[in-house]
Amino acid sequence: MKALLVLALSSVCLTALADEATMPAGHPQPAVEQYSYSSELDIAKVISMSEIPSVCEVVPAQMVYEDSQGTQHILEYRVMGNGCSNG
Questions:
Q1: Are 9 and 1 within 8 A, CB to CB?
Q2: Is the pLDDT score of 12 beyond 50?
Q3: pLDDT for 22-34, tens place per residue?
Q4: CA-based, 20 to 30 A from 35: which of 27, 42, 49, 77?
């Protein structure tokens, strides 16, 4: 049981470190921006996108991107999960 807890905590820590690795050293992480249909986006380069879970419902997702000025942004948006079947 303790080993399982240590494994779970380790994976959370590694995930947090992986998120920080996308940000240049010495730069604060940008605030999460909420997407709406009226948002005007300036996306020059997509750095990463979160995985979409296998559920049949609308779920939040995030994209980290650079704009044309080289500034990083984190955009949160809603997407349909991958768990729906058409049968």
A1: no
A2: no
A3: 555 666 788 999 9
A4: 27
Q: How far apart are CA 46 and CA 67, in angstroms?
A: 9
Contact predicate 60/80, CB 8 Å: no
Distance CA 49, CA 27 (A): 20
Element (H, E) at 21: helix 2-21
Spatial neighbors of 49 by CB under 8 A, at least 6 apart, are: 61, 62, 63, 64
The end-to-end CA distance of the chain, in Å, is 40
**Joined tokens for residue 1:** 């049981």
Task: Strands of the chain (E only): list them.
Answer: 32-34, 45-49, 58-66, 72-80
* Architecture of the domain whose range is 26-80: Roll (2.30)
Q: Which two tokens stand for residue 66?
A: 């650079």
